[in-house]
Design a protein that fits this description.
- By secondary structure, this protein is of the alpha+beta class.
- Among the domains are: about 230 residues, Sandwich (Jelly Rolls), CATH 2.60.120; about 200 residues, no CATH class.
- The chain is built from nine helices and 31 strands.
- The strands form six sheets. It has a 17-stranded mixed beta sheet that branches.
- Strand 13 and strand 14 form a beta hairpin.
């Protein structure tokens, strides 16, 4: 029931690793461990370091793609379209090495994606594919398609497809015709881009997430089928019997709540956009959705155990279907469940549990226990919540201790209550009898169950439980009150402000006042500038405890102008002296570059030729008995759960 009709506005969520070699490190306050794996969230302030033979790819929250070569160190200083954050652009800082940026949409120049090196700032306002090499002898920028604007101490220039720019220190920018370097990194970029053109996305997933879909190999790991009980097309993963969603992975800290990191190679989209439902005939299946969440699950906190269950597990329940249709029609909605329930009396077949002592660590799949394999005695109380568990990162010396402390507060005074559901004389809150009936999937609800379900429904993306809720509020077992002005894309905070605090970031990533001569920001008056210490001769620090450099304060303030001429002062054009470290890179004839496709079509890098335009995305025609689907069609469960 999480699936929803397409909404206006750009995609929003979290950036994440879509490819990681064996020697890739992710240095983040989200974990005490620096090892990196596919589907790991990447946040502003995080740093990635690669070994000599490893590369990485990060799909950004706004859909742009960053690819990182070996022997490279980068910091993601800002990340646009991040859920509950206020960054207005992507800003990647290269300490050393090579990075390729593929921008998949256009943006105003003052908020366009940007790459900073020690010598230059590169902004990419249009759909483009560029490469930036940064080293001790200067910075080189190659443009495969589209164009980039390069700014240095001496001036700025526009570099178009088939051209490259070189800048070092205070010298003028040198622009010439040049193709991409023919090395392993270029082949890696080409292969990653070709995957999306060769595989082709399903029409059941929005074009905004087409590249994510292709890189997840959904066509290889599962298939699409029409599910009559849900009145929708769903994706079925090829998994072993007894598999449960959210069982093969672990929980990782992010500011918006503990976030599921799946070990499955396809495990980003299905666990953060859309819902999982259990159909009696075909098993678990995924309905794509547009709205992001750390995980679409219900939580269960009890003595000794933490459990979670896909929200869609109860979406097939006939009572849910009745009340949801009555209030929201076929629009995306689900019941926000909160309260205290007797765990011995609920249907636990959709639930997974892990021992409370293992929670907060990168546990193994063997640590996860199916709910129907656990035996709870009558009166074993669990606090049920839909709200993500938000952890105060700075409250403890380690992240694991911080999670454990928050878990203790979220569990509250969970004590055994009489099995009849009445509160004890000692003041223990009584069980929510209606909630217990709902979680048991009773075919006939009592008046208490019907009343509880009637008031639980919320529209997808507008759940008051997804604004910051304290652990103590979760322990109370009450449903959060609606917040005035809430919307699917702006999650209000309890203190009346908007968006999540960024105090957890690296100190060097925080904004500071604009200094004299700061030329990096493309427009005056922008809300955030980042500067360094002003000493351009200071060696770049790359150790784990040393922050990477951001803006340096010594840049000249050049105001942006539309239609910037590539022949401005401070720019050497073709035919003038070039200072490439490798003479083999000097100015071959420009290559023909095809227009950039927003869905990941690739301009060939091999043999200097371009790849033919791929055929339009298509899917096998649906069977004659099934309706033609639209993106994010909402399920309409029709059978009575059991």
């Amino acid at each position: 029931m999480v699936a929803a009709h397409p909404a206006t506005g750009q995609r929003e969520g979290y950036s994440y690793l879509s490819y990681a070699g064996s020697e890739v490190s992710l240095l983040s306050k989200a974990s005490d461990d620096s090892s990196a794996a596919v589907n790991t969230p990447v946040m502003a302030g995080d740093r990635i370091q690669t070994g000599s033979s490893s590369r990485a790819e990060v799909i950004l929250a706004d859909g742009n793609v960053v690819r990182i070569d070996g022997r490279t160190t980068v910091r993601f200083d800002r990340l646009a379209a991040t859920y509950e954050a206020d960054d207005d652009r992507d800003l990647v800082i290269i300490a050393k090495g090579s990075v390729s940026l593929e921008t998949r949409s256009t943006a105003p120049r003052e908020t366009s994606p940007r790459i900073d090196t020690d010598d230059a700032t590169v902004t990419v306002p249009d759909r483009s594919v560029i490469r930036v090499d940064a080293g001790k002898r200067g910075t080189e920028v190659f443009v495969l398609s589209g164009h980039a604007e390069v700014a240095g101490r001496a001036g700025r220039a526009v570099v178009r497809a088939g051209e490259s720019a070189y800048v070092a220190g205070d010298d003028p920018i040198e622009v010439d015709t040049a193709s991409m370097p023919r090395d392993r990194f270029s082949r890696f970029v080409e292969e990653r881009r070709e995957r999306s053109t060769q595989l082709g996305s399903s029409r059941y997933v929005s074009d905004e997430y087409a590249y994510d879909y292709d890189q997840g190999d959904f066509e290889e790991y599962g298939s699409w089928t029409y599910v009559s009980s849900l009145d929708s097309y769903c994706w079925r993963p090829s998994v072993a019997a007894g598999w449960l969603p959210y069982s093969n992975g672990y929980w990782r800290w992010t500011p918006c709540g503990l976030t599921w990191v799946s070990y499955e190679p396809w495990g980003w989209l299905p666990f953060h956009f859309g819902s999982w439902s259990l159909d009696p005939a075909i098993g678990w299946c995924w309905l794509p959705g547009r709205h992001y969440a750390p995980a679409w699950v219900y939580w269960n906190y009890s003595h000794g155990w933490v459990g979670w269950c896909p929200i869609g597990y109860y979406g097939q329940y006939s009572h849910f279907f009745h009340w949801g249709r009555e209030r929201f029609g076929k629009g995306g909605a689900y019941p926000h469940l909160a309260g205290r329930a007797d765990l011995a009396r609920i249907d636990r077949r959709g639930w997974s549990f892990v021992g409370a002592d293992r929670f907060g660590t990168r546990f193994d799949p063997k640590d996860v226990v199916r709910g129907d394999k656990l035996s709870f005695k009558p009166g074993h109380v669990g606090v049920i919540s839909t709200a993500p568990l938000r952890v105060d990162r700075g409250s403890q010396p380690t992240l694991t201790l911080a999670v454990q402390e928050t878990l203790r507060r979220a569990s509250g005074q969970v004590a055994a209550s009489p099995s009849d559901g009445r509160g004890s004389r000692g003041g223990t809150p009584e069980l929510n009898q209606g909630l217990t009936e709902i979680l048991r999937r009773e075919p006939n609800l009592s008046s208490a169950g019907r009343e509880e379900l009637k008031h639980a429904w919320v529209r997808t993306g507008n759940d008051p439980g997804f604004h910051p809720v304290s652990a103590e509020t979760i322990a109370q077992g009450t449903r959060p009150a609606p917040v005035q002005g809430s919307s699917p894309h702006v999650m209000p905070r309890l203190d009346g402000g908007f968006r999540q605090t960024t105090e957890w970031r690296e100190s060097s990533a925080r904004p500071s006042p604009r200094g004299e001569g700061a030329w990096r920001e493309p427009a005056p008056g922008t809300s955030r500038e980042v500067h360094g210490d002003g000493n351009r001769n200071r060696p770049v620090e790359t150790g784990r405890g040393a922050p990477l450099r951001s803006d340096d304060g010594w840049r000249s303030s050049l105001a942006p102008r539309s239609g910037v001429s590539p022949r401005e002062p401070g720019v050497r054009r073709s035919g003038e002296t070039r200072r490439f470290e490798n003479s083999s890179r000097s100015a071959p004839a420009p290559r023909r570059v095809e227009p950039f496709r927003s869905h990941g079509s690739g301009d060939g890098l091999r043999n200097g030729s371009h790849s033919p335009a791929p055929a339009p995305r298509s899917a096998p025609p649906p069977s004659s008995h099934a309706p033609v689907p639209s993106h994010y069609s909402s399920p309409a469960p029709s059978h009575k759960g059991g």
